[in-house]
Protein 1
Amino acid sequence: MGPPTFGRAVRRVEDPRLVTGAGTYVDDRQPANLVHAAFLRSYLANAVVRRLDVTGARQAPGVLAAWTDADLQELGSMPTEAPEEAAFVPERRPLANGRVHHVGQPVAVVIAESRQQARDAIDRIEMDLEPLPAVADVETATAPKAALVYPEAPGNISFTIRKKRGAVAAAFKKAEVVVRQRLHNQRLIPMAMETRGALATMDGSRLTVEISSQAPHSALADLAEGLRMDPADIRVIVPEVGGGFGSKGGLYSEELVVAEAARRLRRPVKWIEDRTENCSGTWQARGHVQEVELAAMRDGTVLALRSQIRADMGTLAGFGPMVPVGTIDMLTGCYKIPALESTLTGVFTNTTPTSAYRGAGRPEATYLIERMMDLLAVELGRDPAQVRKHNFIGREAFPYRNPAGTTYDSGDYAGALDRLLAMADYPRLRRDQAAARQAGRLHGIGMAAYVDIGGGGPADRSAVHLEMDGSLTVYTGSTPHGQGHETTWAQLAADVFGLPLERVRVRHGDTDHPSYAQGTWGSRSAATSGAAVLNGTRTLKRQVVGLAASALEAAEADLVLEDGRVYVRGVPSRALSLERLAAWALAQDREAELRANEEFDSPDYVFPFGAHLAVVEVDRDTGRVQILRYLAVDDCGVVINPMIVEGQVHGGTTQGIAQALFEEAAFDPDGQLLTGNLTTYLVPAAPDVPRFELDRTVTPTPRNPIGAKGIGESGTLAAPPTIVNAVMDALGPLGIRHLDMPLTPAKVWEAIRAAPG
């Protein structure tokens, strides 16, 4: 039997085809008789559609069809979720119907023989928009007498959720220190390398939609509802996906319209989003204004947290309203704060809808509490590490129910921070900082502790098959877009059967497979889909041993499965290879026992955690922030593949650094997107990212059989407050208390120039 692969840093088996260009993406597919879709989009943020005439487009060369929403009335509206019963959720038609609400909203579609012909024909559509006043941010939208995004939503409010626990007023009255701060968590564009795309084909009465998506099964359900078709008549295939980060988690209007075009025209129809469409049309994220108060005693004990959060919903789409609920549920982070009062308001603006983006509500919560803990430390003149440790939830307190009603599974927050401080040689860092300041340099050290939330329901289903050649095929509903599922799921199955990794194949991204997952998001794959794979493989092993017991006329308890064969313990000559056993099962009409279908329904969420630290230096003359060191200690429970875990930390942390220093989706007061391409929306390049110094602690969860918690989003929680805290520490001697993200050189330089110190 070969060495176990579980827990080893096995190279990703999917990488060779991806790095050599052998992977297949939606736009690589070129079926016969393919035609192309292009969309006319609104150029105003709020307007009445006075005239929309597609006659000219229909007469353009190569055009097969041109439609407005009036031509698509038999289609259902797009799905949208609401966080509470009283929420106002506007109807989302596939194409704008009489009114446009944000720049980039699709208004009409053209189908033509070539992509260029479709785009050219778009210019022949006559559209007359009557502009209306727009609101482009939550403060403008909630001001008295503000223009309304939807007349049915007074004050531009979609929903309000309030949570209160403990004696908040008494805590603030008792407090010796009250820290107040307005925090802005800016809008971001997910900016996946591969833009959205869909290819739809009809074969008889069956529709196949190939889509760049994180959730094929959810897309199938939404397509069936929108097209009013039997789900059994739809197949969704997800090929390679060049990034999603949450933005490809729901069904978009364009994808439904492309599917309908294929159904009507009986020809394959493809649409691929360009980068400008991606910036204005793909769902954006974050966009919080947070008014926060923290009550504490002089010894650093936090008594209560009070906040009012306005979350920018844009024009609202998909499951966007559910995202900020994750913020209010996780506001107190790693800390035993006894009293909480918070109000979350979902606000409509005339901007691109917001939805999930890596972290989905939890980065906003982490940023809030971690900035406030640093501000408290500054107010008290205490070390920020000591203030955090003084308030941490103790290891003995788990499972722990936080004031918002969320129950954490397990944790050792002080252990992670202590490991981090030891790695960094924290006392030496502070001595070096003192020397740097003595020399006149703006040198800062920042840290943040975080607790994330992952896993959860609904149940995921897997299937594991023993093939006739003795290999295993694992079918999973969890569709990867960079997470390495083909490797990690193979590691789980290979270890159960004692097989080499190359004898296990993982199949995903096809709703015709005997598997299911709601979607690949929310750090749920290892904790939920991975657990389903493990359960399925263990069930198959029991069935295979049962088959061998019959074939060898031996007791199951006496059989050993390893090295691709089953043998009688102590009598290795009495054995059957898996190939021969599969052939025997087929001959005995017991082929069904070569397949196992299992699911895993998590009893509750899992809660990864950790602590990050950064050392930065700020250039006085330019405002540029240089990251000198970045260290992280993360705890995602039991680790299947350390290399993949580290890769996820690298990616998430890089995106968190990008939010802290570079990225912001900016709109002018009329709702025009000012950052509509990669020359104006700044993403970090390789030289902008430091070398990461990583370590882990391991605190298993009792909520799945692996003990795994998930790691894909944790870096986006920890990095923004870590970097901002470090920069504010550097600027502290100048009297600068707080700057909102992104901390661009221009913003930092202006603050230095205006600083009282």
Note: The chain is about 30% helix and 25% strand.
Protein 2
Amino acid sequence: MKNSKSLSLILGLSACIGSVNAQVSPSHPYTAPHPIYGSFSVTDSNYYNQKQLAQHNEFMVGNHDYPGKPKDMWEIGIKGGMFTIGGDVDAVLATPGFGAHIRKSLGHTLSLRLEYMYGIAKGQNWQPSTGYQYAGYANPWFYRYTKNSVLPGGNVWDPIRYPGVYYNYKTHVQELSLQLLANIHNIRFYKAQTGVTLYALAGLGVSTWKGRVDAMHEVRGDAESAAYDYSTINSSGVYANRKDILKQLKDLQNGEYDTPIERDPSRPYSDMFRGNIAPSVSGGLGLAFRLSPRINLAIEDRVIYNGSDLLDGQRWDEKGTLSPDKDLMNYLTVGLNFNIGSKSKRVEPLYWLNSMNYAYGELRRVPEIVLPDADGDGVTDQFDQEQTPAGCPVDLHGVSLDTDGDGVPDCKDKELVTPTYCQPVDADGVGKCPCPDDCKAAVPECAALLGALPSIHFAPNSNKLSDDAAATLATVASKLKANPNCKVVVVGYCAATKRQQQLSWDHVNKVIAHLVEKEGVSSDRFIFSSGQEGGDCDAVDIRAAAPGEDGPNTVAPPHPNLRKN
């Protein structure tokens, strides 16, 4: 019967899977709405465009396994934050950048975004530089009016008299890029709606930039007299630290950024933007917080690269070597994004919706599986080969058990074991032997009726029955019930120490107690025998009692204080 229960469980699971499939089969079309995305129902055709509507209709009648992809809202957003350039000149932090975008999902994970960015970056070195002298001419044009930048007549650089200049810049950058965003944090297994999504992005675009250097005072008359005199900067002694030098530079410079930076000769120049123009690539990470079905707040950091080393106007080191490193732009922002579109025709952007909702919703709607079993014998009608009267034990095929094969089921047989030579039997299963004396003498002994009985094994120093041992005892109980006149001897081994004596008693007692309490075998069917020699200390043997063999079915524990539960 335990096998019958296992088979029923397997059939139940199979029927469960079949029920899920049946919901999209031609014979089981949808008949009621199934909400899966908040107010969105898979049966509502308003959420599908013309292309997806055909798939939706096929799904509704059970000819397609998947519903159509619903129309979802577009996202528009504005953002602002900090824009910086990482190059040869120290960046000034807290310089502004802002932008706007429009975004559309491709599915629950991927989306496309078109973004415009405008940034203003500044830089200011606090240590003087002379590397610009190697630009191919002694007086670089963008510092041409700066005092202390001109070589003396002998064209020999004097670092004491002419300590150089303090590089600075202010660069305006614009970029238009198309970005692919990848987000998987909306796929949740333990709740329907996420409040936060993490995404990565990569993009291609075009960037333009123009920059200027703060090199002069207001020009009046002689241009050279209007240039900054950096020899006034005290960069030694107590004024050698970064903070004090930057303060001196701030007092000296007027912040008007009067002189254009060097154009990048490797990139085209655009008159429309009055600056260089170049393709760009970018990558970054973002974290978005869902404030409502219409609004979310995003924190994002994006790195932009366009292959130029002149975003900050400098590309020469102090040894006259072109810098091998290109400049990078960093765009750190906080943005406010809005979902646009009619709620009655579009769902939230798919990257906010949990694609698991539909699958979980369908599993929750699977009805309780009821497998028919007309005769109540534990074998479903699909596999039952016999309509069995109530109370009759059956085999795996639902056929009444007949232990002695006399044609009378056990539930009606008054003589469970009728020898073959005493058959045929009457309606009660009682045989008619040729001679009563011969029949009595020929009744098989219990050893023949019960056959070889299995041993029960325990883990070392344990008195716990494993699942396998319990199943084995169920088989022993079945044989004992089929032979009610037979007794069995339950034998435990080892008695060299008190602990062994008690453990042997525990093992025998455990087996007998299980057969009595769990399997319903009468306690007077057992002969208790523990502490025997010649066997495995962790095993209990069960054998049929010999004719005339008898003994107690319970024995007091030899050492109760050492008992194991």
Note: The chain has a mean pLDDT of 81.
Protein 3
Amino acid sequence: MSDDQRLLVVDDEEAICEGCRRIFTRLGFEVEKTSDAQVGLHLAEENEYAAILLDIKMPNMTGIEFLEQLRTKRPRVPVIFMTGYPSVPNTIAAIRLGAAGYVTKPFTPEEVAAAVQKHVRGAAEPNDETSLPDDPWTPGAEGYLFLRDSWVQYGQDGTARTGALTPRTQAASIQGVRLPKVGETVYQGLPLAAIVRDGAPPQIVVSPLSGVVEAVNQQLLKEPSALWEDPTGSGWIAAIRPTRYDEETEQCRRRRVILVNADANTAAAQQAKLTALGHHVRVATNWDELGPPLQDDGCGAVLVDAASFGQEGPALIERLNAVAPEKKIVLLGTGDASLEAAYRSHRIFYYAVEPFADKEIIEILQAAFRSPAPPAKHTDARKTSEDHIATLKIVNRNGSKVRLVAETGLLPGQEGLGMLIRRRLLDRQLPVETTFGERVVTPNSIASDASACDRVVVLMARDIDRLPGSLLRDVCAAYVSAGGMDLGNVTTLVIQPTRQEEGLTGLNEETSAALADHIVHELTSYRPLPTGRNHNANGK
């Protein structure tokens, strides 16, 4: 393996070493790890590494001492400190020795991946127009997975290509595409890109996974038609280094369809087109071959080629309805409408005339696999500041006291994001202590919260030049009290609103639900550092 794919992790906590190994192995790196600083220094001096992840406080040798000795032999290797609480003296010393940066424990996979990504593989600056060459990219064995209309295809090198199925009917109104930037962190279910349309709101493409953007398809800016002409090929949107593969893959689904066509030649052509749209296709040429596929509960649609069955087609549909009434049946019709009335007398999901010719099949498949929208919830409660959540406090499964602090008016308690967060916490049977009303968020108030809890999560809405609903996570050492105390146990979650004056009320239900999932994950997954190290003034 080349040196630009090797990492070294040095931390006296084996859990940190093993966590980094899991994260970066999935990202395509070879990872060496050690909990002994002396052993780590020897490895660092004798071997070439793309980067070194280094604990700042270890028995017998601090990270600063490690780096001082390392620089005599390896003056240029990027070293990223891992620390519980960054302190000013350590920061000054680290800068003097040329440290590449630091991540604050406990860090998320996205944070540590982004920190390393800046310094390895010639990673581009956020504004760099980086595209992923098609030829060297080799897909893995998973095939295409879908989250709503967005798809992801994992590669053998640890990257994942992403995109979306886009209806061609919107082509005339498309003005352009807004792509993510290289180096940005994206989150599953939240915006990845947008198709900008004339006279209509942008069509948001959600990210099917969380990770760091490694490359974007700049060719889409010149040829947006690839989005509907070749959506899973030249119409890909971004390549991402996934950071939560094990957690999130189960949220995505394969799209499986049954193609019923008595003509082998046209069946092969239709199967190829459906496969090119990321769908797994099982072909049946007669009724006897239909039995096993119909037992597949994951099959989203049965596509029946009307021309190949002629006069027997309506009887086939009647039989399908009797045996598998839950299946969505799509009739692939022709210009001959002589049997249309007979077909429509039976229950069918859609009647389409030559849908492959004009790409109508994309919209049909979108409709067939779309989950039903949840019923709208109405409340007669008055929407005043007293109805909004100021703080939420829980003790999570790891025994940590975690508090969510929201800016005034951001989280209505009876609807929207605030209601979704509380409901998810209660569904996990976690006691939730809620305070309502106005609460001004200041460094001093956050300092008070931080001293009373293991973790504080501050939620705010700001214009961060991203798509509405986008999430920016920051382990915020910027919250400093009047006394100068570093608040390393404070995390800030910044959400891009639709418009600043609307806060988060303008976000749609799907985006709000995805945000609630990520916020709840932030609150419930926090694990404290080992006893005695959570509030170490020396920067551990």
Note: Residues 52 and 79 are 5 Å apart (CA to CA).
Protein 4
Amino acid sequence: MNDMTAPQSHATPLWNLADLYPTPEAWAVEYARIKDLAIALDSYKGTLGTNAAALLAALDAISRVAKETARLYAYAALKADEDISLAKSQERRQQAGALYTLLGEKTAWLAPEILALGEVKIRAFERENAVLTERHGFSLDNTLRAAPHTLGLEAESVLAAAGDVLQQPDSVYGQLANSELPFPTVTLSNGTSVRLDQSGYVQHRQSENRADRKLVFDSFWGAWKNYEGTAGAVLTAQIMGDIFRAKARRHKNALSAALFPDAIPEAVYRTLVAEANQGLASLHRYFRLRKRLLGIDGPLEYYDVYPIMFPGIHEPKFTVADSERVTLDALVPYGEEYLAFLRQGFAGKWTDPFPRTHKASGAYMNGSAYDVHPYVLLNHQDDYDSLSTFAHEWGHAVHTQLTTKYQPYEKSHYSTFVAEAASIANEMLLNDHMVKHAKTREEKLFYLGEGVESIRGTFFRQVMLAEFELAIHEEIEHGRPLSGARMTELYLGILRKYYGEAEGVMTINPAYGIEWAYIPHFYFNFYVYQYATSIAGAARFTDAIIGEGKPAAERFLSLLRAGGSDYPYELYNHAGIDMASPAPYRALIARMNRIMDDIEALLR
């Protein structure tokens, strides 16, 4: 640890995209080659039933094009995020996305033809050719499972061609939220003038000055409120697209359609929401503790959620080098295989860690290039949140490396349902490590506060968003009109329930009900619930690893090594966790209460 006063920066990207393609010109040449191969995939239509070798040849050809398309898109996306102001890079990303659409169109015949052959013939081919089963067995099983929701060739081609159109609401939202919405500029109590765009809002909502926090909330949400109608129309278009796809594929509703590809039982989603509601007393306990620690007289307000719980405690600082070292120390319980992958990644030019003008915001891992290695984008601010984010994204990266090592490409596409557990478990092990090795009472309180806030943000908040997402889909499914104003009304009601307004825990200003318009995940078709299931699964794994040691770590690593070789719900079951039962969610809430017990004991 050190006490740097400002985060490091770097004028140019530090990752080496030449590992993907040596130059943009080389990318263009490869793009043309793969596009020709994608167009030629039509030639395999009608050949699958010839014999097992013909089926394997067709599936291998499609797989090769898919793998290279993913590599092309990885380069285009990473290059675009190096500098989002460069039109050429953004056009290259759009071009790569169009190749995905072309691939979908040129393989739209695949599932109908497999289903026309029938399960008996497919199973006979699998018995005849072991390689077919080894590489494509799970994919074939999944296709056969989807028979009730697979359309004829013409209809499948139409749905594939509609892909670009159905993605447009997300593009419109991104343009509005990241470029064209006129974000306000405000003057803080110290005289500093700040622009409240997305990153400015996130930074200044944490201010220790309560008047500044109120100013930030009032101004930022006021800007969004001016576009309530537009944001509502765009999100309604997204929801209509979700429902259209569900109906077209004969699913009973949009939720079941979204859960079907990963074979997630609907009970997982509904149990998650029910258990979060059942555990709201623990969330309300946290807010009462927060109010006490912040020394707030009168009601707690929504803008009091984000500042550090312990004003006056010096927040520790971590450089990128510190983050590497501390992450390695914290993840020792996983064993040497995991640590070796981390060291390899840290030594290679796989990361672009520092913020700079025109670089994409946030943090992510891109592991799409199966034959290369994952890449990690960060905007490291040299604080504990940056350290935690570092450990999180490298959890995704090592998950990718483990999957690549143990699975063929065709079984390497792991689900988000598992992926987030891989990264959140790292955050929890890191937090436990920091609490254990804290040198002072104040430092320990800081890390305990971060641990409990993580559960608040990753579990309760994400379930709240998931509950809202289900509600707005059901509005349309039940024939009720939906608008920006109606979304604000629904969101405000759920927000007040979670944050305990009726119980006197917190006051929610109705002006803040527009917050739904700021959440990009609502354009991802029932995505956010997986953060909440993942932190519950991660908590069970973390507790077991700390308690049992190597056997529990091995169960967790086996889950990661499995990649996409089975359905994620089943992979959890193999690891000893039933995500459709109340148990993992109750265990997580118990962990939250243990942390609050520790905080209160230290305060005494």
Note: The mean pLDDT is 94.
